[in-house]
Amino acid sequence: MNRRTLLSLLGASPALMAGLPAAAEQAPNPTKPAKASTAPPKVEGLNPRGTPPPIQLIPMARRLDSLNRKTVWLVDTGFEGGGMLLEQIRLWFNQNMPTVNAVFRRKAGPYMEDDPVLWKEIKEKGDAAIMAVGH
Which of 44, 51, 49, 48 minimizes the C-alpha distance to 16? Predict the structure, then answer.
């Protein structure tokens, strides 16, 4: 395996090793006695990506046995075309499963911004939720 591939697998930049061949080709200093060491020069590299924080795993919600007489929330997060898709899903529920109460809502703010008022309402009044988050 070549050095570039090995470094990329380790998450380090191949540029870190650019100085090694030049250091190996330097002429010995005549004022200092030559060492008997054959070890290659040491290079310390730091990963620019840093250390990511630990991930908190949250299990998925339990699947409902049936949607009959349940309230399904259709939440649009603002992704282009998501609202139109969810409106079509709401119409499908109205035509094909009239016992399902499909509620369409637009989440306040952009995708990554929290909307605690909406989440509280869904937890209190809903049985399931479908979110259109884009691709």
Answer: 44
